[in-house]
Amino acid sequence: MDLLIKNGTVVTAKESFVADVAVDAGKIVAIGKDLPMEANQVVDATGKLVLPGALDVHTHLAMPFGGTVSADSYLSGTRAAACGGVTTVFDYPVQHKGETILGLVNSKKAILEKEACVDYAFHCCITDLNEGTILEEMEKAVEEGITSFKCFLVYKKENMMVDDGTLARLLLRAKELGAMINVHAENPDLIDLNIEKFLAEGKTSAWYHYLSRPEFVEAEADKRAVHWATHLDAPIYLVHMADKEGLEACIDAKKAGHEVYVETCPQYLEFTCDVYKREDGRNFVCSPPMKGQESQDALWEALKAGFIDTIATDHCPFQSFEKDWGKDNFTKIPNGCAGIENMYPYMLDAANAGKISFERVVELCSTNPARIFGCTEKGSLAIGKDADIVIYDKDKDFTIHVENMHSDYDHTIWEGKQLHGYPVQTYLRGNLVYDNGEFVGEVGAGKYVKRVRKAN
Ligand SMILES: [Zn+2]
Predict the structure, then answer these.
(1) DSSP output for 177-193
(2) Residues 407, 77: contact at Cβ < 8 Å?
(3) Residue 113 and residue 119: Cα distance in Å, rounded?
(4) How far is the CA of 306 from the centre of ligand 1 (A)?
(5) Secondary structure (DSSP) of 377-424
(6) Torsion angle in degrees (nearest 10) through CA of 215, 220, 226, 232
(7) How far is the CA of 3 from the centre of ligand 1 (A)?
(8) How close is the Cα of 59 to the center of ligand 1, in Å?
(9) What's the 39 CA to ligand 1 centre distance in angstroms?
């Protein structure tokens, strides 16, 4: 036996119990009380929680955007992931006109093979059907383990948006292939109308980023996406849900039996649009923006009631000097914030405070994303699964500072946030990659996760 984690409280999406976890050759081989086994390495987890590693299914590493490239490389982003208990990261390469899915993904894979500190998978953002060749190629992509694709209903001027006809074609094709379409829903025409008006009036602070894309602007696109998916009887996954009205449309569709999945992010659970009134409001600029208190309350309520399926981060940080480009014009602020190292600790802190259960956090951050996106070896502590394990100390206090994070960015929206309870160790397929504040893994040890399509 390679590793024996003794006497911790094992948490799954369903239950918690004190047990030993035995690992050999990167897999969990036994779980039980007082396992009569010897191991090369024995870890005493008495009094600690033993959790499955999280999957952050929404990140943008080394992504060209907003006139620059997001501040975390594949190396620093996955290193930070390991230190926050995330053992699988999904990247979102963006296809541009003329590019093929596999050409694009393989170019990213070549970098990750050298740099990845945790395991990785890809959703591919489709922006252009290339005269239908992309619809053809999707089949090959699915066979290669890329079983989800993203559409932007926004970023029209940036040439990233798909129109409704393309969305419909992609939804139907994905359904046929046992794959999924993920949607970033905001309405670009309403946003442009608002931006034009505010700039003409000299209203240029970060607050107008929020006011140019308020609740109803997201809700319109959420509802349109859900409308198409339900009437075409195709599954759909809404990324970074942030507004109440759109969320309610998703909940209604779920209740009617449609396959609608909802993701939200820690920033929408923690902050409201009030952050954009702050002096450093530009640092919080992401799209969709944080919304009002009513939306935040609705997100927490849905999360507790089981209507939110996954938590992910939309990790896409930019450096301070880049955020400063928009000091006098909110449209010049690169959109995106940090979160990859904060998601699991933040959600576990909510559990520690009694807001939700630890089992629910495991479900939202690990079990559900693995199940929805076909990572059959990931997402729970069970015999035969990859030994992606986080040991969590419920009593350890931790304050987030940019200095104790493991990213390459120079500031974080989470600065000063106090957490009660924190991960003390992360194992990737049985290998220790994070130990009490330090990254101790191997650069390039992360492996590609070949995902499995849904049975039709
Ligand atoms: Zn995103």
Answers:
(1) HT-EEEEE---HHHHHH
(2) yes
(3) 10
(4) 23
(5) T-SS--TTSB--EEEEEEEEEEE--GGGS-SS-S--TTTT-EEEEEEE
(6) -170
(7) 36
(8) 6
(9) 42
* Collapsed DSSP state (helix, strand, coil) of residue 110: helix
What is the pTM for the complete model shown? 0.97
**What's 117's DSSP letter?**
S
Find all residues with CB under 8 Å of 403, minimum gap 6, and list them: none
Alpha helices in 206-243 (DSSP H): 207-212, 215-231
In angstroms, how far is CA 165 from the centroid of its own chain? 27
> Helix or strand or coil: residue 240?
coil
Instruction: Give CA torsion, residues 196, 332, 223, 148, to 10 deg.
Output: 150
Ligand 1 (ion): which residues have CB within 5 A? Answer: 314
Distance CA 69, CA 76 (A): 14
Cα–Cα dist 309/298, whole Å: 14
Q: How far is the CA of 367 from the centre of ligand 1 (A)?
A: 21
Taking residue 32's Cβ as centre, other Cβ atoms within 10 Å add up to: 14
Q: Residue 58 Cα, ligand 1 centroid: separation in angstroms?
A: 6
In Å, what is the CA distance from 326 to each residue of 157, 206, 281? Answer: 18, 8, 10
From first to last of the 456 residues of the chain, give the pLDDT tens digit: 999 999 999 999 999 999 999 999 999 999 999 999 999 999 999 999 999 999 999 999 998 887 899 999 999 999 999 999 999 999 999 998 899 999 999 999 999 999 999 999 999 999 999 988 999 999 999 999 999 999 999 999 989 999 999 999 999 999 999 999 999 999 999 999 999 999 999 999 999 999 999 999 999 999 999 999 999 999 999 999 999 999 999 999 999 999 999 999 999 999 999 999 999 999 999 999 999 999 999 999 999 999 999 999 999 999 999 999 999 999 999 999 999 999 999 999 999 999 999 999 999 999 999 999 999 999 999 999 999 999 999 999 999 999 999 999 999 999 999 999 999 999 999 999 999 999 999 999 999 999 999 865
Q: 157 exposed, middle or buried (CB, 10 Å; 0-12, 13-18, 19+)?
A: exposed
Query: What is the phi/psi pair of residue 323, to 5°?
Result: -60, -35
Tell me the CA–centroid distance for residue 35 and ligand 1, in Å: 43
Tokens of 427: 């194992």
Cα(152) to centroid of ligand 1, in Å? 9
Q: 48 CA to middle of ligand 1, Å?
A: 33
Quote the ligand 1 centre to 102 CA distance (angstroms).
20
What residues are paired with 19 via a beta bridge? Answer: 8
Nearest-angstrom CA–CA distance, 434 and 78: 12
